[in-house]
Write a structure and sequence with these properties.
By secondary structure, the protein is of the alpha/beta class. It folds into 2 domains: about 1-115, Response regulator (Rossmann fold), CATH 3.40.50.2300; about 145-250, OB fold (Dihydrolipoamide Acetyltransferase, E2P) (Beta Barrel), CATH 2.40.50. Helix content is about 25%, strand content about 30%. The chain has helices spanning about 10-20, 35-45, 60-65, 85-90, 100-115, 190-195, 240-250; strands at about 1-5, 25-30, 50, 75-80, 95, 145-150, 155-160, 165-170, 170-175, 185, 200, 205-210, 215-220, 225-230, 235. Strands 2-1-3-4-5 form a 5-stranded parallel β-sheet, with helices on both faces. This is Response regulator transcription factor. Keywords: Phosphoprotein. GO terms for molecular function: DNA binding; phosphorelay response regulator activity. It holds the Pfam family Response_reg.
Length: about 250
């Protein structure tokens, strides 16, 4: 498990390095003193886990996360206990108060291992999206990536594999995960270019579904299909996409 330490205190980073030596499967791949440095390290190193301070010069740890389209799992390390609720609202794995205790760090790392070792099965294969000529293709997000979602005053840090549906809602896109339905200012076309086509399928002009959340499929009118997702809702697949879906899911 590769870890990036983000803290403006050199002493705090040194102490974390020392504590992490007790865990043979953990490798500290880098350090960052502030959000700007962390962004560069994240892009270069792509760690599995971020040990992240909240109060830093310039941007806070929360502001760093809000600026990322995809990020590793996060464990907050801070001297302040008043941000714990907010930390879990962005789906942080844990919230460790300084000075960090080895037993609490061990428990937090175990949560990270459980997330990283969760099995994933991909059954459908699709052609990659066509990129715009003379422009680099957009960075593809895998189902294991996490994205920061903000809707008004609420925010979440969501693994893409937990999102079962993207649906147009006015000029926004609504995201379905757990019991939540936040709206984001992104088009389905933009999302389709970023999402892994092995996992996410454009069912019609209004909806993109996560193939792993399919509960049942039934024939529908005019040779189309109707798909029920675990946790709802039902999605009607367009005629053209029904043909493509049958091709993708056939041997």
């Amino acid at each position: 498990m590769n870890v990036l330490l983000v803290d403006d205190s050199r002493l705090a980073r040194t102490e974390l390095r020392h504590l992490l030596q007790a865990f043979p499967d953990v490798t500290v791949v880098g350090e960052a003193r502030h959000a700007a440095e962390a962004r560069a390290r994240l892009q270069d190193l792509r760690p599995d886990l971020l040990l992240l301070d909240i109060h830093m010069p310039g941007e806070t740890g929360f502001e760093l996360l809000a600026s990322l389209e995809a990020a590793p799992h996060v464990i907050f390390t801070t001297a302040y206990d008043e941000y714990a609720l907010r930390a879990f609202e962005v789906n942080a794995l844990d919230y460790l108060l300084k000075p960090v205790q080895e037993n609490r760090l061990a428990a937090a790392l175990e949560k990270a291992r459980a997330k990283l070792l969760a099995p994933a099965v991909v059954e459908a294969v699709a052609a990659p999206a066509q990129s715009v000529p003379d422009e680099p293709p957009p960075t593809l997000l895998t189902e294991h990536d996490q994205v920061f979602v903000k809707d008004g005053e609420r925010c979440w840090f969501v693994r893409l594999s937990d999102i079962r549906l993207f649906e147009i809602n006015g000029s926004y896109t609504q995201i379905y995960f757990e019991q939540h339905r936040p709206l984001i200012p992104r088009t389905l076309q933009h999302l389709e270019q970023r999402l892994d086509h092995k996992v996410f399928f454009r069912a019609n002009r209004q909806q993109i579904i996560n193939l792993k959340w399919i509960e049942s499929i039934e024939p529908w009118f005019s040779n189309t299909l109707k798909i029920r997702l675990r946790g709802g809702p039902e999605v009607e697949v367009s005629r053209q996409q029904s043909v493509r879906f049958r091709e993708l899911m056939s041997l």
